[in-house]
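User: For a reading group we're discussing how well predicted structures match intuition. Take Drug/metabolite transporter (DMT)-like permease. Before you show the prediction, I'll give you the sequence so everyone sees exactly what went in.
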Amino acid sequence: MLKKIDGYSWAILAAFGFSMKAIFVKLAYQTAPVSATTLLAMRMAIALPFFAWMARLGAQQKPVPLTASRLGQVVALGCLGYYLSSLFDFEGLRHITAGLERLILYLYPTMVLLIQAVLMRKPPSNRAWQAIGLCYLGLAIAFGHDLQLGSQESVWLGGAWVFASAVTYAIYYVGTGKVVGVLGPMQLTGLSGTASCLMVLAHWAITDANTQPAALPIQIWGYATAMAMFSTVLPIWALAQAIRRMGTSDAAAIGALGPALTILFAWWWLGESLSWWQMAGMGLIIIGVIRLKPAKAPADK
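Assistant: Thanks. Here is the predicted 3D structure of Drug/metabolite transporter (DMT)-like permease, as structure tokens, for the group to look at:
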């Protein structure tokens, strides 16, 4: 019993950390002009040593030869999960609220289900279709709420970026199922995270190197550090601890706190609106995702 209670504490900590990522991004954008690429590069540069440490720790726990084939799979997963998906997400946050961003991202289990259905050539069950319908009805309500409050062009553009992030992350999630059994979750997260950090930094060096991050306000570095430590490294570790103590299904259920926490903190710290329509949309999405009974995600973005 104590072990499961301890697992709940770890799972709540993970949900809290993941939910704060969008808040830190929005605060950074409000502090000074900074591109999504530069902000993401700052976050990943800080997180890189910790991803490398996870990879080393995972290799010690489960020593497995890293063949060229497996390395290629890890690089592909890193490209999808922490590089493209994170970049799309950061771009989207330039245009939409943190609350709407979290709700769109939280749809990824529906996308995982549909991708797996296509790959396995097996249509989802009626229960799954009902859950998917609830999720997208909730998104329509929340999306309509933001369309009424802000620029329609910005909401559509930002929503498209974040939806692309969710799709990319869903593909990454499906791909991890092919590799995680061999490398283990810790080593896979560390290796794919390390690969994505290097990709992000290379992208920044090619497209945005004249930004001079050292000249940015210290607050920007503070938010980037908070994203790297509190909303990347810590929740990934906490989620792994929660799953080890209480199992994947219970940990995933507690992850449903994420959208609610993001919307609450966005209202509190960013001054974003908090309406009954938005809460209704969030409720439908959370209920739909829980009905899908998603497995544990490898990590958040």
